[in-house]
Amino acid sequence: MAEIKTTTKTVDLESLLPVKGFKAIGVSAGLRRSGKPDITLIVSETPCASAGVFTTNRVKAAPVLLCMDHLAKSGDQMQAIVINAANANACTGEQGLTNSQQTAQWVAEAIGCQPEQVYVMSTGVIGVQLPMDKIEYGVKTAAGELAEDGWALASRGIMTTDTHPKAISKQGSGYTITGIAKGSGMIAPNMATMLAFITTDAALPQPILQQALRDANNQSFNRICVDGDTSTNDTVLLMANGASGVDVSEGEAYDEFMALLTDMCIELGQMIVRDGEGATKFITIEVNGASDDASAHQIANTIAVSPLVKTAFYGGDANWGRIAMAAGRAGVEFDQTQMNLWFAAGKSFEDSLQVLANGMPTDYQEDDAAAIFAEEDIYVKLNVGNGSGQATVWTCDFSHEYVTINGDYRT
Amino acid sequence: MAEIKTTTKTVDLESLLPVKGFKAIGVSAGLRRSGKPDITLIVSETPCASAGVFTTNRVKAAPVLLCMDHLAKSGDQMQAIVINAANANACTGEQGLTNSQQTAQWVAEAIGCQPEQVYVMSTGVIGVQLPMDKIEYGVKTAAGELAEDGWALASRGIMTTDTHPKAISKQGSGYTITGIAKGSGMIAPNMATMLAFITTDAALPQPILQQALRDANNQSFNRICVDGDTSTNDTVLLMANGASGVDVSEGEAYDEFMALLTDMCIELGQMIVRDGEGATKFITIEVNGASDDASAHQIANTIAVSPLVKTAFYGGDANWGRIAMAAGRAGVEFDQTQMNLWFAAGKSFEDSLQVLANGMPTDYQEDDAAAIFAEEDIYVKLNVGNGSGQATVWTCDFSHEYVTINGDYRT
């Protein structure tokens, strides 16, 4: 199995594995002023069982609406994904929807399938209509360059201001899963869009596939946060064409597939956090002892998005008071005299320092806490009682650079 | 009626009015290293009908718990408020509660009332026990210096890193209301605490007084946000001693009192926003057309706390896409094709520029939007449909200075 490091910002694109029956590519169509790849195409030789999870934002981009519609119309039997960077096609009305449909039509003609079998996705500027001449050129060029080993270029083609591509492969028992993702980059005047596209040659029919994606998503992409804002375009898609001949729809085979899929989603999600706008720290926040998992998640997430907590991490300040404050405002009941809090350096809860015991500070040494907070990776563990609820989220800090990136006037 | 400007950061303390039967003072007890006033005492000659609203944070400071307890024990008949700066007495366990009780005891002895008739409040560092020798000295000194015209010093004594005191008086028909507030300042390692103390010589019994405070609070302090974090100590107290002999408990008299009280709370709240950490802009966000007021408030608040929106304001970027995004993630149902959005310079919706019509950008000129966003005061109006729900909130921007203030290591 290919090992791709997620503890640093470098991703080894050489180790990406082809997925039987799939081809992919990223090409330049002139949408990005830099001339970098901006149209990505992923195609299966045959229709695939397909699943998707989409942004919960009430303001949904045209391609998101189209994807949901196409999934329903095709009976979840999709065959291609086309993605353009540099333009989100959001807040673009009927024209935006027509443009997404036209894009699907071009892909369908180029690869020989129904337009309803094409997912269309966009990321970038909002409120601007797509430059359809460039889209047409890009789709046709991409269709002619599709390759089994095109995943590295595909992962580059969905970047906006991501500082590096995000991709990973997992090898199961007789099948492969390869996924690419983007996120936490910006091109003005938009917001960060989180996208992930995952393909496998394992066989896994609907509705099991949708449930698998939903479960993996809840343990991964739904556990990351950069700034707490939710894009109009966030999308995770999963296609399974069964070309390996390996059925993973039940039993141990399903368990293995779920473990690999979940790991992949967690690692892709962590890559997004590490590449968060202006991020200088990677922080794991574990909450346990809550009444249920949802409550623990709510507390962990409130800590993760708190500007006061995030700026303290940036400053290397082991400010447990802000963490206790954020936990307290999460809207979840707990007894403050049962709060226990630990800090540790790294990505796991080892050599931890307890700073709060039963709601009051321990006699820890500030120097010890400061040494932990000087690290790039920090682990925070908060216990709020005796319940069985547990959740872990991953986040980054809030830096001057974040303000610089997002305070810049659109150019 | 005294006019106190709230459109700038200067407050005219000379125009504060005494309230019949009340005395106040702020003295230096050595809690603040700067030597500035840090113990404030507000005393009524007679027991007062009293109301309070307290932080919803599950982690409540000892004085908050004590205030709630004393209000119940005294039958809402309170006689004094004592506040210390520089120490929040939060996450301090049983000892913290004992220290708050001792503080109330000293006040009771000094002014001649029951300890249960004393509100105690603290703001500042959390997780540190109060220096009780300094508290005792401060309480006794303050009790000896109480004065009818001591409100200016009182307003200074509750400051932490507020850049200016916040106070205002309102003259009703035969009675006076004077209030002081603090907020949006920090002293490490705490979070911003919002406190307001309001006194009147009008007569207004419980439970009408509590309802009046709750209503005014919902229209004012609950409508402001600097960073979306909620302190462990937030408290608003209202005392009415009836010394003016004017009963305002019903009819037009009540309406007048409510209007004055609400205005005062809004103006004090706006002073807090203008003094927000690192704030360079004052932004009014009005949402209407939602299904109900709570939904409108939820949307307005989500826009107000969004880091992407706040950094855009800082950058002078009329970034309507981020506002639409934030509205969409508020968890409130609405039809994105019914979104209309306007920007205006100043504190009111005059000479506005419509940038979004039915979910799509208008053909407005970017220069016109940029001119509005170059102003210190910006008005944002978002319509999300045909409902009757409406809400207005006030917020500030998110600057490099915010990160500097909150990213600094505790010293």
Q: What secondary-structure arrangement, pairings included, does this model have?
A:
The structure is a homodimer of 411-residue chains.
Chain A lengths: L21 E6 L11 E16 L7 H12 L3 E11 L5 H19 L6 E8 L6 H14 L5 H7 L8 E6 L4 E7 L12 E6 L7 H11 L5 E2 L9 E6 L10 H24 L7 E9 L2 H13 L1 H8 L5 H9 L11 E6 L7 E5 L2 E2 L4 H8 L3 E7 L5 E8 L3 H8 L4
Description:
In chain A, strand 12 (353-357) and strand 13 (360-361) form a beta hairpin. Residues 1-8 and 185-191 of chain A have low confidence and may be disordered. The first copy, chain A, has 2 domains: 13-274, L-amino peptidase D-ALA esterase/amidase (4-Layer Sandwich), CATH 3.60.70.12; 282-407, ArgJ beta chain, C-terminal domain (Ubiquitin-like (UB roll)), CATH 3.10.20.340. In chain A, strands 1, 2, 3, 4, 5, 6, 7 and 9 form an 8-stranded mixed beta sheet that branches. A 7-stranded mixed beta sheet of chain A has the order 8-15-10-14-11-12-13, with helices on both faces. The first copy, chain A, has 411 residues and is α+β, with helices and mostly antiparallel strands. The first copy, chain A, starts with 21 loop residues before the first strand and ends with a helix. Chain A has helices at residues 62-73, 93-111, 132-145, 151-157, 208-218, 251-274, 293-305, 307-314, 320-328, 366-373, 400-407; strands spanning 22-27, 39-54, 77-87, 118-125, 166-171, 176-182, 195-200, 224-225, 235-240, 282-290, 340-345, 353-357, 360-361, 377-383, 389-396. Chains A and B meet through helix 8, helix 9, strand 13 and helix 11 of A and helix 8, helix 9, strand 13 and helix 11 of B.
